[in-house]
Amino acid sequence: MDNSDLVKSLSSAPVEAGAVTILYFARLKEAFGRGSERLALPSSVATVGALREFLRARGGAWEVELAATKPVRVAVNQEMVAPLTPLNPGDEVAFFPPVTGG
Amino acid sequence: MPVRIQTEDFDVGAEIAALRRGNPTIGAIASFIGLVRDANEGERVTEMTLEHYPGMTEKALAKIVDEAKARWNIIDVLVVHRVGTLHPCDQIVLVIVSGAHRGEAFAACEFVMDYLKTQAPFWKKEQTPAGGRWVDARTSDDAAAERWARQEKAQ
After folding, report:
1. The model's pTM
2. Sheet holding B131-134: strands in order across?
3. What is the pLDDT of residues A13-43, one digit of tens each?
4. Is B117 in the A-facing interface, judged by CB distances under 8 Å?
5. DSSP string of A34-69, one letter each residue
6. Mind listing the pLDDT tens digit for each residue in A45-87?
């Protein structure tokens, strides 16, 4: 198949089961060197709080910025949520510092 | 659309004129304009960059406007918030509230700003002579928003 067919087959490929899209903003985006990623959730990661712990275990900047003492806010599908909020396949999860607009 | 996110500047007079045009039930308009200052936390600020979360920002602001309309007998609300690179003296945010009387317009305008400060996903990064730094959230902003939550419980 040529390149255009490859692109077509990739863009129509089904999303991995259990995957979520994770977005990072402001200080976190800079520290992690990325604004987004797709991640297949291990079965042990069922809540927002568990996902934060899972990411923190990557070490380095992840460990520093997602430490329990850091004021990190989380939104699921563009609504701010508490740590015990459950995660579902296809969710858009965003991690960011307390907001400073206005 | 009562909520706009944009990089361009806004004209306060034109926005107020558009909001009140031809509506004889409006007796009062309260507005707030937030500006970029040239200093913060003891450092000179030469430039500020505003980042936001497209999609969530509009939803969060629309929710705040809906809540203001549910709490007070007001007629219309407009929120304009700029993003991108700004400089001292630039306008950042505009809130306009129209109503029959001033009391409700003033209260709703302050409420929208207090909630915007703590709920809408915007982040400021300042450039100072010492380099760039992300602005930290202020506990006084949380206290200002919390005040309205307490009032609702008391009612």
Report:
1. 0.90
2. B84-86, B47-52, B122-128, B131-134
3. 455 667 999 999 999 999 999 999 999 999 9
4. yes
5. -SEEEEEPPTT--BHHHHHHHHHTT-THHHHHTSTT
6. 999 999 999 999 999 999 999 999 999 999 999 999 999 999 9
Residue with tokens 């009387």: B101
Please give the backbone phi and psi of residue B23, each rounded to the nearest 5 degrees, phi first: -110, 100
What token pair was written down for B97? 């509230």
- Which pairing describes strands B28-35 and B91-99: parallel, antiparallel, or unpaired? antiparallel
Rounded to whole angstroms, the Cα distance separating A83 from A95 reads 11
Residues composing chain A = 102
- Please give the pLDDT value at position B152: 76
Contact list in B for residue A101 (CB cut-off 8 A) is 50, 52, 81, 93, 116-117, 120-124
CB contact under 8 A, B116 and A78: no
What's CA B53's distance to the chain center, in Å? 16
- Pick the closest to residue B45 from B90, B11, B80, B94 (CA basis): B90
Closest residue in chain A to residue B50, using alpha carbons only: A101
The verdict on B52 touching A (C-beta cutoff 8 Å) is yes
